[in-house]
């Protein structure tokens, strides 16, 4: 049920898991008729019997899942509380009880940047992403046209950084394709 729709205006929640049962938690949310997104990437996995390497799609992080806000926050709170799995929705701040809502446009761009077929991509933890200094930009040319984020430099290459609660993703981009956002 990973749904990407540019026209959608429904915000998303980031849910942190306190177990490694990502597939089961995703199944739980789907059974409650909620749309979910899990960033995935291709990894090389060796078959234990044949010792051949397979290219498999695996989650980038095993303790984070994004859930579309299709109901009131109190109803979402009940679904999280009634869950057989330990989890918590990321809040606006440590003191706040309100859930942090990821704007639909930001989540759409994040999903686009997490496409597992894109090769020049790096994933960062939330802390690493916050440490990156860069200029807010919009890509005006090329296959990433229309995406926004921070233009950052890493290992003498330029990347477009998109942050969401819990993680960040960087895509290789030519700095000449980007224009600062005023």
Key traits:
182 residues; alpha+beta; 4-stranded antiparallel β-sheet; 4 helices; 12 strands
Short description:
With 182 residues, the chain is of the alpha+beta class. The protein has four helices and twelve strands. It has a six-stranded antiparallel β-sheet with strand order 7-11-10-9-8-12.
Give an overview of the whole structure.
The chain has 182 residues and is of the alpha+beta class. The protein contains four helices and twelve strands. It has helices at residues 22-31, 73-82, 104-113, 126-131, and strands at 12-17, 36-37, 40-46, 53-59, 64-68, 87-89, 121-125, 135-139, 148-154, 157-164, 167-172, 178-180. The strands form three sheets. The chain has a six-stranded antiparallel β-sheet with strand order 7-11-10-9-8-12. Strands 2-5-1-6 form a four-stranded antiparallel β-sheet. Strands 3-4 form a two-stranded antiparallel sheet. The mean pLDDT is 90.
What is the topology?
Elements: E1 12-17, H1 22-31, E2 36-37, E3 40-46, E4 53-59, E5 64-68, H2 73-82, E6 87-89, H3 104-113, E7 121-125, H4 126-131, E8 135-139, E9 148-154, E10 157-164, E11 167-172, E12 178-180
Antiparallel strand pairs: 1-5, 1-6, 2-5, 3-4, 7-11, 8-9, 8-12, 9-10, 10-11
């Amino acid at each position: 049920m990973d749904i990407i729709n540019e026209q959608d205006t429904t915000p998303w929640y980031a849910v942190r898991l306190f177990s490694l049962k990502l597939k089961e938690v995703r199944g739980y949310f789907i059974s409650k008729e909620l749309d979910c997104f899990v960033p995935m990437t291709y990894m090389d996995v060796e078959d234990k019997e044949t010792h051949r390497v397979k290219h498999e799609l695996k989650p980038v992080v095993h303790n984070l899942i994004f859930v579309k806000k299709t109901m009131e926050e109190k109803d979402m709170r009940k679904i999280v509380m009634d869950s057989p799995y330990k989890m918590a929705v990321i809040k606006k701040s440590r003191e706040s009880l309100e859930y942090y809502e990821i704007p639909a446009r930001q989540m759409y761009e994040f999903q686009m940047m997490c496409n597992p077929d894109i090769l020049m991509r790096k994933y960062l933890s939330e802390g690493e992403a916050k440490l990156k200094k860069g200029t807010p930009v919009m890509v005006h040319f090329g296959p990433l046209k229309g995406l926004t984020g921070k233009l950052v430099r890493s290992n003498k290459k330029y990347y477009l950084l998109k942050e969401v609660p819990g993680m960040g993703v960087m895509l290789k981009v030519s700095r000449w394709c980007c224009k600062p956002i005023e």
